[in-house]
């Protein structure tokens, strides 16, 4: 951790606690998983700009903080579910900015990346497809969306599902398959050829625009808006997904820490059977277990961040971290609800929302079981190579 990262994280934490937390009761936070409204996002981001904290993990010269420093900053931003939205560290924008920074051409960066970094635009990553179409979910090789070259344009057709932030996004990264293999394209949104069929009602409610099912019908994209090279889409997806998995861990670690803080405050002030709840062994032990899970998760996040900072691809490390941290944070959120009893399942505190958000996180960027399966395949391969 550098001094710059530590100082920045402290500023982010103070901003989230003092400025963003009060927005958690704002009526502009929509229900049924559709996320905070656009005007609420704009208001919070204006405050972040005023504080000099917009997109804090990307520096003024366009360089990116190290992953170790990013971990500290993103954990602080996650102390409120609204924090990453306000500070522009939220998915899918954070991962999309990282991908464009690595793969996009200078012209593409000026046109598509710059408005994302400034927080003036949101983005969407169009990869997952509807199960009823037999499309790509955890297995991207099942992709049904197609693209073919027609003159100087690529023509794209297909359907996508669970596309976070598609409603209201201005920048899209669309993944489709060609004869050369998987391809990625940058598109301006909205586009009449990209039609939102519906926005799903989901358990989580922190991401603007929610999660949409989208139809893509004869979308024409100029050839110079292909991201990178034809046939390299799956490789680019891994460029994005390895750090994106880790970024999810960073943000939701902050939220789980906040839930634990609220549960601790409750247990240290609420009495039952003649003494404070915290003095009852069953409650005190749950809080102790939360502290252990928080610390272990922090250490694993920092370990994986350090691996990525060496330039390693980090696929195995990010899979391990995604599994361990998402499961640990779920335990923390669940215990926090349990400690608070009826108050824990009400909207009177943010604990109830954090529980819902972390439950969804166990599925984001690959569910636990897919990562375990992938790790098991690597274990088998290593064993065979040694025998």
UniProtKB/TrEMBL annotation:
Residues 124-201 form the Acyl-CoA oxidase/dehydrogenase middle domain. Residues 3-120 form the Acyl-CoA dehydrogenase/oxidase N-terminal domain. Residues 231-378 form the Acyl-CoA dehydrogenase/oxidase C-terminal domain. The keyword Oxidoreductase applies. InterPro entries: Acyl-CoA_dehydrogenase (IPR050741), Acyl-CoA_Oxase/DH_mid-dom (IPR006091), Acyl-CoA_Oxase/DH_mid-dom_sf (IPR046373), AcylCo_DH-like_C (IPR036250), AcylCo_DH/oxidase_C (IPR009075), AcylCoA_DH/ox_N (IPR013786), AcylCoA_DH/ox_N_sf (IPR037069), AcylCoA_DH/oxidase_NM_dom_sf (IPR009100). Keywords: FAD, Flavoprotein, Oxidoreductase. Homodimer. Belongs to the acyl-CoA dehydrogenase family. This is Acyl-CoA dehydrogenase family protein. It comes from Novosphingobium mangrovi (ex Hu et al. 2023).
